[in-house]
């Protein structure tokens, strides 16, 4: 590598790089057309975006479209330059150095390559070739590629293709319309692993990368560039660098848009494959493209149109919200019906128990029947046993020893989990209407409203209404209430 570099440095001065950056664009005999995109959203108007490495003279062109081996010329067309940068993304693989002179030259080469990418608005990734160690620098800037750059010193790679394959593994597939270029630099006149050239070229094509090989003139370098549809610039020729940087600058120039009306004016909803051809005999240009018209493609283009997509999306969102609101009301109605059905089934299952309960103290589902025993006692003027209180409260204790007092200020106080009760207990084991306390001339009587889990008074299940006394403990579900009267 040292001999090759010395031959190169003797024919290529240090100031040549600065000249290459400011030199005028070199015009190529091959205009280098590259198709960017085809826009048929406004068909029969067709918009073809392409890139040309040389300026285009709009005169002297002939544009035609071919359908089923029948060609028609377009009536008119126009070229419109697109005033925006075309970013060039470079992936550069360079060898290491053997002495200080080689180091300065390699860093200067990498600096100018990265700078050409920066001027177009692109990014660069740099790899230092090594058979044993991986050196890779993501999104490197030209400012850091100077004499102070921490350039690792590695021996010349014996297997350069394997180095490049490892480098290629860390590069994502190019799925955009931008230029992603793989630049491979080698000073070796021949490669030991040259039998792997076809596989490397295939992987480069699969990644949709453009290839530039900067290496001595050899059969290996020519084959790699040819198999990968890339370019080979001999490293020992000074003209190669002028051509290389001119090519990179040309890629960063503005794109063109070809706008015309299709002479066929086909239906967008039927499948047709149309080929287009742009030819200029004077300028030696022959540019061929193809586009498809079909039902699914047209539907996709319609849905991707913001003027169509956003209104339809808002309408669908509103429709979904309305459906959710309706289903919520429907679900609440079903839950209410299910609750009523469950209550009825529970009470039907306990029919015999209700009959016994009714015989004992006349308590049934109907409100009038629940008060029958008290009404009979009052009618017969039978005095109720127990003490009378002018004021009474129920005290609720929680697990943190906090207390809540509920005064019994009504003639009838209902207790349960329903919000309509006077005293609401947020306990899942408490029924909707679980119990009640009635005030009869200062005597407070506790009733079980035929609850499933029952009511416990001082640890015993309440089988009939009982008059409450001061300090009585009432258990409803898992909730403990204390009765206080004075």
Automatic annotation (TrEMBL):
Keywords for this protein: Membrane, Transmembrane, Transmembrane helix
Transmembrane segments: 307-327
Entry keyword Transmembrane helix: yes
Domain named FHA: residues: 413-462
Highest taxon above the source species: Bacteria
Cited CDD domains: FHA
Protein name (record): FHA domain-containing protein
């Amino acid at each position: 590598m040292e001999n090759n570099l010395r031959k190169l440095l003797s024919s290529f001065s240090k100031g040549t790089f600065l000249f290459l950056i400011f030199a005028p664009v070199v015009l190529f005999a091959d205009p280098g057309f590259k198709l960017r995109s085809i826009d048929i959203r406004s068909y029969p108007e067709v918009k073809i975006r392409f890139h040309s490495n040389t300026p285009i003279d709009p005169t002297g062109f002939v544009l035609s479209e071919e359908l089923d081996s029948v060609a028609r010329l377009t009536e008119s067309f126009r070229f419109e330059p697109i005033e925006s940068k075309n970013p060039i993304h470079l992936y550069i693989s360079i060898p290491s150095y053997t002495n200080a002179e080689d180091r300065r030259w390699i860093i200067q080469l990498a600096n100018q390559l990265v700078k050409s990418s920066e001027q177009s608005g692109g990014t660069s990734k740099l790899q230092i070739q090594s058979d044993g160690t991986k050196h890779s620098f993501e999104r490197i800037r030209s400012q850091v590629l100077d004499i102070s750059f921490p350039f690792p010193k590695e021996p010349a790679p014996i297997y350069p293709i394997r180095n490049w394959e490892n480098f290629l593994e860390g590069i994502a597939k190019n799925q955009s319309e931008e230029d992603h270029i793989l630049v491979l630099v080698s000073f070796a006149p021949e490669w030991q692993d040259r039998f792997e050239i076809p596989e490397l070229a295939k992987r480069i094509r699969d990644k949709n990368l453009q290839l530039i090989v900067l290496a001595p003139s050899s059969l290996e370098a020519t084959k790699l560039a040819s198999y990968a549809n890339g370019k080979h610039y001999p490293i020992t020729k000074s003209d190669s660098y002028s051509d290389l940087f001119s090519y990179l600058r040309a890629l960063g120039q503005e794109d063109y848009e070809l706008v015309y009306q299709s002479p066929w004016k086909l239906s967008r909803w039927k499948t047709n494959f149309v080929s287009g051809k742009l030819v200029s005999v004077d300028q030696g240009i022959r540019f061929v493209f193809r586009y498809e018209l079909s039902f699914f493609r047209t539907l996709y283009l319609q849905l991707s149109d913001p003027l169509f997509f956003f209104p339809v999306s808002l309408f669908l969102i509103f429709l979904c919200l309305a459906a959710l609101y309706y289903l919520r009301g429907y679900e609440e109605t079903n839950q209410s019906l299910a609750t009523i059905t469950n209550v009825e089934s529970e009470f039907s299952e306990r029919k015999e128990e209700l009959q016994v309960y009714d015989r004992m103290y006349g308590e049934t589902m109907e409100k009038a029947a629940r008060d029958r025993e008290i009404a009979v006692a009052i009618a017969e003027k039978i005095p109720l046993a127990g003490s009378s209180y002018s004021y009474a409260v129920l005290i609720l204790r929680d697990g943190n020893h906090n207390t809540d007092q509920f005064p019994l200020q009504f003639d009838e106080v209902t207790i349960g989990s329903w919000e309509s009760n006077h005293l609401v207990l947020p306990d899942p084991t408490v029924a909707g209407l679980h119990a009640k306390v009635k005030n009869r001339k200062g005597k407070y009587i506790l009733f079980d409203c035929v609850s499933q889990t029952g009511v416990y008074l001082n640890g015993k299940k309440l089988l009939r209404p009982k008059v409450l006394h001061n300090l009585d403990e009432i258990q409803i579900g898992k909730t403990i209430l204390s009765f206080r009267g004075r």
